[in-house]
Specification:
Elements (H helix, E strand, L loop, with lengths): L2 E2 L18 H8 L3 E5 L2 E4 L1 H20 L3 E2 L5 E3 H7 L1 H4 L5 E4 L5 E4 L4 H8 L10 E10 L14 E11 L2 H21 L4 E5 L9 E8 L5 E5 L6 E3 L20 E4 L6 H8 L7 E8 L2 E8 L6 H8 L5 E2 L2 H8 L15 E5 L8 E4 L5 E6 L1 H4 L4 E3 L18 E15 L1 H6 L2 E3 L5 E3 L1 E8 H11 L1 E2 L2 E2 L10 E5 L5 H16 L4 E4 L5 H11 L3 E5 L1 H6 L2 E5 L5 E4 L4 H15 L1
Parallel strand pairs: 1-29, 4-8, 16-18, 18-21, 28-29, 28-30
Antiparallel strand pairs: 2-3, 5-7, 6-7, 8-9, 9-25, 10-11, 11-22, 12-13, 12-22, 14-20, 15-16, 15-17, 19-20, 22-25, 23-24, 26-27, 30-31, 31-32
Helix pairs in contact: 1-12, 2-6, 2-12
Length: 573
């Protein structure tokens, strides 16, 4: 059935919204896909919903083909489940909670590991496993700073899947099935996505990969090596140890006054030393312990790596009061020399750093010529920093690049964290009770759309990958008041519809220029124009949105031409 634009609710905007920063946010507003309802909450208008449904259709097909079974779980989740797994405290900052009329606390699900694990307890025998369950459902997170339109919002659509296996070997097979399905989903969606090593964070588990789409407005950054293909989220990217620098004799340790100089930049300028010669000391609270973490002045502590090293679920920078209690000095003057009562963790970059500068654990003072092997008792040397563009690839040694990206998918090997906590057990072949081995696999459905627009657009508007386009073809009547021309365009639209194409007929009584601009803005892959060429020689002008190629064809060749252009559009991204 053809859709007539004159009757279709597709409000377009000529100017970018003032509050929009990301390209996808601007174009989704201008092209009539979404409208902001409140902070972090967007309505999908008919055009946007069609695009969203295209993503969902691809996901469903690939998930079903991979052996997953679809279900639907409620957004309202019992708080007891969250408390049982310990995530009520870990995720409390983003949980949206309320009390119902009986006073019972309820959580609006930001994800569904707890609920699906409780449901999976129905499978009691190893003969009923493996199982992979998935849903496409709205999630809720109390994001402190919603931004970039639907890239970071409080309410969003997620495809979340969960696997339940009898062994780690079987989990490996389920994980690979989902991993490969994700690669196909993103490829079919026209996205250039990188599979990256990742940190599991609050989800738990030992192995995880993120699927990242490059974007200038992405909130994540990855380290990527073009030579060997290594890719990792910065939280997981491995940093090589610094090579030894021969020939620098150790100088005597000395304390110097540094009044008012408490940042790396200030100390560097005051003492006329490079930040690479400064040891930055940060005090962290991890569970019940306080630790001192040492990194080079031009590096930053990677808290995800630090938390993994300490095996701590909670980690935060110490308060000013705690820092002064531990070091004896105010913030900005902590250092490793003479520091007692706390474990010292040094990044491996510092292993060969000679004659460095560090805080003196005394107000308004620093130590110079600090050599850790001589002047401090380091308890642990490890990789606890973020990678930089100066680092070599840990896999092949070539130069890496740091790329801004949007996370569009994430897969985890969870193990038994949730099954043990919630009693999801099965009887093995010998009759023994064992916890199910779990994996989980998420796709941000909304983000797939945003990432596609970030990667596929030009100055005129969206350039839809064919698989995500709300319509395949837009038939534009240049003079809708001309009844003969309108009748021919309607006949043509019906013909294309019968050939299996989804068609939008632009029958609006507007100027030809505004119609063509709108067609470019909304980005439908193929534009068929019924205008002067039809009046003069009964030919149709066909345009490819992706290549801007224009051609004149007879009516008899329309279907084949449209099909070829759509096939070309699918291979361009």
């Amino acid at each position: 059935m053809i859709t007539k634009w004159s009757k279709y609710f597709l409000p377009t905007l000529r100017e970018d919204p003032k509050d929009a920063e990301a390209i996808s946010h601007k174009l989704m507003m201008r092209a009539g896909l979404i409208r902001r309802v409140g902070s972090g909450a967007y309505a999908y208008l008919p055009f946007g919903l069609r695009a969203l449904q295209c993503v969902c259709a691809i996901i469903r097909e690939e998930m079903n083909n991979a052996g997953a079974q679809e279900l639907l779980m409620p957004a309202l989740t019992p708080v007891e489940l969250w408390k049982t797994t310990g995530r009520y405290e870990i995720m409390q900052d983003i949980l949206i909670r309320f009390k119902d009329r009986t006073g019972k606390e309820v959580v609006l699900g930001p994800t569904h590991e707890e609920v699906v694990t409780d449901i999976a307890k129905e499978a009691r025998s190893h003969k009923q496993l493996p199982i992979i369950l998935y849903q496409i459902q709205t999630k809720f997170r109390d994001e402190p700073r919603p931004r970039f339109g639907i890239i970071r919002s409080k309410e969003f659509l997620m495809k979340d899947a969960y696997s339940f296996d009898v062994s780690w070997e079987d989990l490996g097979r389920s994980y690979d099935a989902m991993y490969q399905a994700y690669k196909r989903i993103f490829a079919r969606s026209g996205l250039k996505a990188l599979a990256c090593d990742a940190d599991s964070g609050a989800m738990g588990g030992d192995v995880s990969h993120e699927f990242m789409a490059a974007s200038d407005f992405g909130e994540d950054r990855i380290a990527h090596c073009a030579s060997c293909g290594y890719a990792a989220n910065l939280e997981a990217a491995k940093c090589p140890p610094a090579p030894a620098i021969p020939g620098e004799a150790l100088q005597p340790l000395q304390e110097v006054a540094t009044p008012g100089q408490h940042t790396v930049e200030q100390v560097s300028q005051f003492l006329k030393v490079s930040p690479t010669k400064i040891i930055k000391t940060l005090i962290y609270e991890a569970a019940s312990d306080v630790v001192a973490v040492l990194v080079r002045g031009d590096h930053d502590v990677n808290e995800a790596k630090l938390a993994r090293l300490l095996k701590s679920k909670t980690l935060k920078l110490a308060s000013a009061a705690t820092i002064e209690r531990v070091t004896g000095a105010p913030v900005g003057f902590a250092g490793p020399v003479g520091l007692k009562g706390v474990a010292l963790i040094a990044d491996q970059t510092l292993a060969h750093l000679a004659n460095a500068v560090a805080g003196a654990n005394r107000a308004e003072a620093h130590m110079v010529n600090v050599n850790l092997s001589r002047d401090a008792k380091v308890d642990t040397v490890a990789d606890v920093r973020f990678a930089t563009e100066d680092d070599a690839c840990p896999k092949c040694g070539a130069k890496m690049a740091l790329i801004k990206t949007i996370e569009i998918g994430h897969v985890f090997k969870l193990g038994t964290r949730y099954s043990q906590a919630l009693g999801a057990v099965f009887q093995d072949a010998s009759g023994q009770s064992q916890p199910m081995i779990m994996g989980c696999y998420g796709i941000g459905v909304n983000r797939v759309l945003a990432a596609a627009i970030e990667q596929c657009h030009d100055e005129q508007g969206i350039v839809w990958p064919a698989a995500l386009a709300p319509f395949s073809v837009v038939v534009t009547v240049m003079e809708a008041v001309n009844e003969t021309m309108l009748a021919k365009a309607t006949e043509l639209a019906q013909r294309l519809d019968k050939a299996g194409f989804s068609v939008l007929l632009d029958d609006r009584q507007q100027s030809p220029g505004s119609k063509l601009k709108d067609a470019d803005l909304i980005g439908i892959p193929v534009q068929v124009v019924v205008g002067k060429a039809w009046q003069q020689a009964e030919q149709l002008e066909i345009r490819s949105r992706a290549t801007k190629e224009k051609m004149l064809v007879a009516v008899e060749a329309v279907e084949d031409t449209v099909r070829k252009l759509l096939d070309t559009s699918s291979t361009l991204v």
